[in-house]
Automatic annotation (TrEMBL):
It comes from the Bacteria. It catalyses: acetate + ATP = acetyl phosphate + ADP. This is Acetate kinase. Mg(2+) binds at N10, E387. ATP binds at K17, H211, L212, G213, N214, G215, D285, M286, R287, G333, V334, G335, E336, N337. Its EC number is 2.7.2.1. Keywords: ATP-binding, Cytoplasm, Kinase, Magnesium, Metal-binding, Nucleotide-binding, Transferase. Pfam families: Acetate_kinase. The record marks H183, R244 as: Transition state stabilizer.
């Protein structure tokens, strides 16, 4: 029997998200989530997609990632999709930070694990959780190929001029301070899907990808390779996000320390969790902000205005970085659903080439689609991202079958 299934694991500090895919036709066999690992009220939500069976939710005491994966394995086994099945070809792990070491998806061995561990200082929140997921999965199926797919990998093609901060080189190198970028799996998938939508090969087109979810980032992709992205050493840089400030003058931090008496941790929390849309207007959900704007709420309008202004600046900057732009693609929760954001972000940019057709922009769909009028110099696309499929595809490509 040929093994055609891939399990995709996205392990966070207190959650594990998973999807089981059949790579013969890229279909999902099951999806699910374990939440509140190691906390009160941990729970598992599992949806088999094979026979239309409904979602099963249960509250179970799940002390750690090993217990979480064991519970997932039990649920999958109930649907005849057990992890001991010979049809399982590999497990693909989302790993947030691959630094400069990992430019491609990589089959995991002890040396790879050690290198992901060495990168913990640049990703203290994410890499330890990713490592726990990998170690647990290896213990469960030591014979199975396991592949790490890095959020940073797609951005390792950035030239030094885009990847370096203009700070003292020795200091930067000593502490590995540089712009790594994140959401790379999404930017890779969406830039390729956008080329396909235009009927072109990725090498033939230049694309600006706007990944606008709760976290948000933009990238400039020339001929299939990333040449700039808006997130940096951490996901804090760049666009205004749901709860992150994006770009600020770094001296704001010194000011808050010296004049505000705030600690490093307090400022970290302020900028990552209490800023962006939620800091500006108390809501980080674009649906709610949109509803408030319709009711004439000035704070919501100001937050939206700041969000759009920053987005426009990045679109303009990436037009300049790329020179020739073939398409601008919107993706993730906000990008795929918020017609208002797409319209506002491109309003007035017609002299640069992009244009939005109001009727096409208003259409709701799960399909990749163009929303620019025929003949627009720069096509505008809405492309639903699929990071799990991309991780599964990259994983499966590395497995001997
Ligand atoms: P992440 O993966 O970063 O958590 P998502 O890509 O799932 O985020 O995006 C979540 C965000 O998408 C929500 O916070 C909300 O602002 C936005 N969103 C989802 N659906 C809609 C919609 N129908 N209209 C406007 N915004 C939406």
């Amino acid at each position: 029997m040929t093994a055609t299934r891939v399990l995709v694991l996205n392990s966070g500090s207190s959650s594990v998200k998973y999807q089981l895919l059949d790579m013969r036709d890229s279909t999902r066999l099951a999806v699910g989530l374990v939440e509140r690992i190691g906390e009160q009220g941990s729970r598992l939500k599992h949806t088999p997609l094979t026979d239309g069976g409904g979602t099963r939710e249960r509250s179970v005491a799940i002390a750690d990632h090993a217990a979480a994966l064991k519970a997932v394995a039990e649920e999958l086994a109930r649907d005849g999709l057990g992890l001991d099945s010979p049809e399982l070809a590999a497990i693909g792990h989302r790993v947030v930070h691959g630094g400069q070491s990992f430019t491609e998806p990589t089959v995991i061995d002890d040396a790879v694990l050690a290198e992901i561990e060495r990168l913990i200082p640049v990703a203290p929140l994410h890499n330890p959780a990713n490592l726990m997921g990998i170690r647990t999965a290896r213990a469960l199926r030591p014979d199975l190929p396991q592949v790490a797919v890095f959020d940073t990998a797609f951005h390792t093609t950035m030239p030094e001029s885009a990847a370096r901060y203009a700070i003292d080189v020795a200091t930067a190198d000593a502490y590995r301070v540089r712009r790594y970028g994140f959401h790379g799996t999404s930017h890779a998938y969406v830039s390729r899907a956008t080329a396909a939508l235009l009927g072109k090969a990725p090498e033939e087109v230049n694309v600006i990808v706007l990944h606008l979810g709760n976290g948000a980032s933009a990238s400039a992709v020339r001929a299939g390779r990333c040449v700039d992205t808006s997130m940096g050493l951490t996901p804090l840089e760049g666009l205004v996000m749901g709860t992150r400030s994006g770009d600020i003058d770094p001296a704001v931090i010194f000011h808050l320390m010296r004049v505000g008496g705030m600690s490093t941790d307090e400022i970290d929390t302020l900028l990552n969790k209490k800023s962006g849309l939620i800091g500006l207007c108390g809501d980080n959900d674009m649906r709610e902000i949109s509803r408030r704007i319709d009711e004439g709420d000035e704070r919501a309008e100001l937050a939206f205005g700041i969000y759009i202004h920053r987005l426009k600046k990045y679109i303009g900057a990436y037009c300049a970085v790329l020179g020739r732009v073939d398409a601008i693609a919107f993706t993730a929760g906000v990008g795929e659903n918020a017609a208002r954001v797409r319209q506002a972000a491109l309003a007035g940019l017609e002299p640069l080439g992009p244009a939005v057709d109001a009727d096409l922009n208003a259409v709701r769909s799960d399909e990749a689609r163009l929303i620019s009028p025929a003949g627009a110099r720069v096509a505008v696309a809405v492309v639903p991202t699929d990071e799990e499929l991309e991780i599964a595809t990259q994983t499966y490509a590395l497995v001997d079958r």
